[in-house]
């Protein structure tokens, strides 16, 4: 089993890892990565000294407050941006350009309004210059897998938000990438649709076992989906702790009722209280609500 190397705390010590480390070879390595954005003479440190190992075939969730560098970390892994310091490698090779052998699902579906659902899925194939006839059957199978078998000839404006996001997931998977990056893919959905999407994503992942990096603000979502959860500090983003999630799969709707789920949620909540992401009370609100004697 590959050694777990995770270091990204304020004093450069390795963050605590809760639970046993997941088995499997390391496929992605993030080493001492920092990212600084400069604008109008001002510098913003988005990530600071992040070390992380991601194992082949695991579902890894990254949870943290807005502005902590979660999406930046995903972009660095995808080669959509380069670190200011440090290195990201996939299969031992340093990332120096956009990675093509992956799928990306963003918070918004980003579908082409003039293309049908099937044509949107095939857009990935068209952009790669591959033969359509080699992928049409796979596209239809994917649409069936995400519940859109009867909607392949519909246009995006005819679909609900959840259905549009399902189409974007199918588009990300059509070329069979080993790695799937998901940047808050359910963030814009209503609560019921989000819950169904979570159930469907787990089922889809169990059938493919792709490596998934899932960015989210939701503690519950991270625990219910992931093999491990990376908890980030407020900006500059550092790894506060990595939790191994011992919930049996499939987790389904029953996962929320288990002691393991409740314990993991409590632990992450306590971390966010300790690092200032969450506040038990707001002094300003207390002052506003205070009655004159």
From TrEMBL:
Molecular function (Gene Ontology), one example: ATP hydrolysis activity
Domain ABC transporter: 28-259
Coiled coil: none
Source domain of life: Bacteria
Pfam families recorded: ABC_tran
Keywords on record: ATP-binding, Nucleotide-binding, Transport
PROSITE patterns (UniProt xref): ABC_TRANSPORTER_1 (PS00211), ABC_TRANSPORTER_2 (PS50893)
UniProt similarity note: Belongs to the ABC transporter superfamily.
PANTHER family in alphabetical order: ALIPHATIC SULFONATES IMPORT ATP-BINDING PROTEIN SSUB, TAURINE IMPORT ATP-BINDING PROTEIN-RELATED
Protein name (record): NitT/TauT family transport system ATP-binding protein
